[in-house]
Amino acid sequence: HTFTGTVFNYTNTKRQNERNMVAAAGALAVKMVIAAFAGMGAATICHPLDVIRVQMQTEGADYKSPLDCATQVYQKNGIRKGLYAGISAAYLRQWLYGSCRIGIYAFLLENAQQKNISEGLPKNQIALGARLLMGMTSGGIGSFVGTPSELALVRMSNDSKLPDKQKRNYNGVVDCVSRIAREEGITKLWTGAQVTVIRAMLLSACALAFTSEIKIRLTGTGIFGDNGQNFGGVPLLFCATLVSSLIANIVSNPFDVVKSRMQNQQVAKDGSKQYSSMVNCFTQIINKDGVPRLWAGFVPAFLKLAPYTVISLILTEKITMAITGKAAL
Hints:
Elements: H1 2-57, H2 66-77, H3 79-83, H4 87-118, H5 128-158, H6 173-184, H7 193-221, H8 234-264, H9 278-289, H10 298-324
Helix pairs in contact: 1-2, 1-4, 1-10, 4-5, 5-7, 7-8, 8-9, 8-10
């Protein structure tokens, strides 16, 4: 009788654990899909700024300002093939990178909050270090998965600037990814993966963790109404994401410049490349152009990151609230 009861309890526990795992997987999937759609909405609005950023960060850039860059790109290639070059890669990037970055962070944050509640602690009593670690984890995973789309985005955004003989003339993101795999090898789809992952870990840690932290602190001031819900909580989230975007951009921009350089470099017929590694690329940029060059394209990068982060996180928050009844961040 005791043995039968033990087996019965074990079976029930096993089934409950399986149900919990399925529920957790379902919750994660929902958060990732919400994050992807939110990211696509933000990318649609902010993509021209991404094109300007890449154009200014890669070699051969002789633009006087972001406005000058935008003007030249528009005059030379128009809107669709100029300012919106590579938009299909930007959408793919949201499903690979954006969905993981925001979706996994929201999932980890909610689990930490639920653990606090179950232990009788305040829901948001989560150390900034723990939030930063969540952001680094989600950003690192998303970035590695999304590196092929990031590479395609850089290649397609910068193609119009190349001399006619060097233009790759990709016909959409599928053509770009398939040609890179076919002509250069599948592993080349992860060109610059090391610096891309490091950049994403730093950017996600700052953008997501500081958004959560600043949001809590601003809510405590009472300036944004009861529980920060004045005007649906949009002003609160706007201010929090704006400050976190500035911090994230300052920290990640040097890696962004190196990433753009490495992913856009031409491979010689003998297989040699200008930059042999991330460190080599950093060294060459500093020796040739000086340290300030590592923050090239800072203004368009921030002008893109700030509204992109604001729009994507507000959309994520509002869609999540509408579907699950809970806040995402």
